[in-house]
Design goal:
seven-stranded mixed beta sheet, 60s Ribosomal Protein L30, Chain: A, 332 residues, alpha+beta
Length: 332
Amino acid sequence: MANDRIVLAHGGGGSLSRELVEDVIAPALGTLPRDMPDAAWAPGAPDFALAADAFVVKPLFFPGGDIGRLSVHGSLNDLAVAGAEPLAIAISLVIEEGLAIETLERVLRSAGRAAAECGTPIIAGDTKVVARGEADELFVSATALGRKRIEARPGLIRPGDQILLSGCLADHGVAVLSARQGMEFETPIESDSACLWPLVAALIEAGVDVHAMRDPTRGGLAACCAELADTASVSMELEEAAIPVRAGTAAACGMLGLDPLTVANEGKLVAFVGADSAQRALAILREQPLGRQAAIVGQVQERQRPAVAMRTRLGGRRVVRMPYGEDLPRIC
C-alpha cells in the first residue's frame, strides 16, 4: 500500500478503501479480499448470514435520520442485498465522556423504533465509555443476523443483465452535509435512510431472476458499479437520463461541486436482473412505497474498457470511475 498511515479517504468507500482491505486488512486477518463482503454466509451454518457495520456519522442528527436509525438500516440492508431475511441485531456503543444522557436516549429510542418498524429485534449489545476528547460524541457498531432466501452475488452478474435503481440518488449525503455545515436549501432535502428488505422480499416472492444486489452507500452508484464490474469481470453502461435525482438535490450537488453518482445513499437498492425479468422487476419495485421512482438505469456488457461508462443526456459517453476517497467523509 502506498501510504504508511491511515488517511480520512481510506474510509470513503472508494479505491483507497478497497486498497486498505485488500493490501492490509484481509492479509493481516488471513482472509482473501473477495471473501470479505459486507455480509457473508456463516461457516457451518450456510443458511444464515452475518453483517457487520460501524457508524461514525457527523452530526448525530440530520434531516430524515440520526446515527441510531442509520445503524439499524445500514446493517439490515447489508443482509438484504445479500439475499438474506433479517432476523436480529446486536448494537455496541462507544460513548465519549460528557455526552448528554438525553442525547444518548434520543439516539437509542430512534434505533429501537427503526428496529421495530423493520420487524427485527435488537437482542444484544455492549457499551464502552472513553475519556473526553478520545471520541467524537458517539460511535455505533451493529451486527445483524439473517436467514438465506436466495443467492445473490457479483459472480452471478452476466452480460445482458439490466441494472435497476429503486429511487433517487444523493439525498442522504446532501442531507448530512447540510446539517454539518448549517446550510439550508430552498427545497428541504432529507436522508433516504430506510430498510431495503421489503423491496428485496417483493422481488424474491415474485420469483424475479435476481443475480446480485447492492446498496450504494459510500462512493454512491459509481463505486457500486465499478466494484461489481471488476469483481464480475464485466462492463456496465449507465443512462444518465434514466437515473433519478430530485431537482433540489441535483441543484445542491451542482452548487457544492458534487457528482450525484458518487454521493452516499442509505435507502436505495441497485439490482442486477436477467433481461427477461427486468420490466417485471421494475413494476414490482414501483408498487412498493420505497420504489415509486425506480428505474432501469443501465445494462451489463461483455468486458471492455472503460469498465463503467455512462451515456450522457447530450448523447456523449462519459467514463465512470471508482472514486478515490469520499467527497463527504463521515457520512454514515
